[in-house]
């Protein structure tokens, strides 16, 4: 039981390049989330998927797109990377979309945009 | 606006020196409060969920408590392996439902010296 897995672990991009961050969970959870973590800013929600087939914006969605591929997988795409997107990205999942369900986090992807 | 504030920002303890971390929140109709532990270079690890004032939960040397306006994470006789960043989070309220979107505090960096 791997929990939440993310690929890649590290990535360096040049400004304007695109990439997709992959996330998968094996806990049969319904809801999945993408966060970014920056020094002094804490964890901020980018997008979330309350259930398979639905996605919605979080606090900081600009410059990102997401796809809930199936119940297990939720990807985050940067279409044209900018230095401001340098951050650590975490995927998380929970049993349900409501606030009383704890979220489980993956190990993170460290992204640098030059 | 929902806010979560943690104090202190950093705490240095000697091994065996007990102390407490604070998480204060301004959320109407609290639906739960979560505590996480985050080690450097890793994703947040779920510790506790508290749902109502007066509730307490324990795990090894950690005990979390909840009042109507704040939560405390008490660390009894800490060991160096307890060194980590401790995060608290509350569900974000939007139109009466929280949809599992968490508002995180900035975290407390705990260092326990041998």
Overall strand count of chain B: 11
Pattern of helices and strands of chain B: EEEEEEEEEEE
Count of alpha and pi helical runs of chain A: 0
Shape estimate of chain B: globular
| Low-confidence segments of chain B | none
Quaternary? heterodimer
Compute the number of strand runs of chain A: 11
Major sheet of chain B, described briefly?
Answer: 6 strands, mixed
- Total helical elements of chain B: 0
Q: Which structural class matches the secondary elements of chain A?
A: mainly beta
Strand content of chain A: over 45%
- State the separation between the terminal residues of chain A, measured CA to CA: 36 Å
What portion of residues of chain A is helical? under 10%
Residue share in β-strands of chain B: over 45%
Shape of chain A: globular
Produce the secondary structure layout.
The complex is a heterodimer of chains A (114) and B (114).
Chain A: E1 4-7, E2 10-13, E3 19-25, E4 31-38, E5 42-49, E6 56-57, E7 64-68, E8 74-78, E9 87-94, E10 104-105, E11 109-113
Parallel strand pairs in A: 2-11
Antiparallel strand pairs in A: 1-3, 3-8, 4-5, 4-9, 5-6, 7-8, 9-10, 9-11
Chain B: E1 3-7, E2 10-14, E3 19-26, E4 33-38, E5 45-50, E6 56-59, E7 62-66, E8 70-75, E9 84-91, E10 102-104, E11 108-113
Parallel strand pairs in B: 2-11
Antiparallel strand pairs in B: 1-3, 3-8, 4-5, 4-9, 6-7, 7-8, 9-10, 9-11
Structure commentary:
The complex is a heterodimer of chains A (114) and B (114). By secondary structure, chain A is mainly β. Chain A has strands at 4-7, 10-13, 19-25, 31-38, 42-49, 56-57, 64-68, 74-78, 87-94, 104-105, 109-113. In chain A, the strands form two sheets. In chain A, strands 2, 4, 5, 6, 9, 10 and 11 form a seven-stranded mixed sheet that branches. In chain A, strands 1-3-8-7 form a four-stranded antiparallel sheet, with no helix packed on it. Chain B contains no helices and eleven strands. In chain B, the strands form two sheets. In chain B, strands 2, 4, 5, 9, 10 and 11 form a six-stranded mixed sheet that branches. A five-stranded antiparallel sheet of chain B has the order 1-3-8-7-6, with no helix packed on it. In chain B, strand 7 and strand 8 form a beta hairpin. Chain B is globular, with a radius of gyration of 14 Å. Chain A binds chain B through residues 4, 31, 33, 40, 42-45, 48, 50, 56, 58, 90, 92, 94, 96-108, and chain B through 31-32, 34, 36, 41-46, 49, 51, 87, 89-92, 97-102, 104-107.
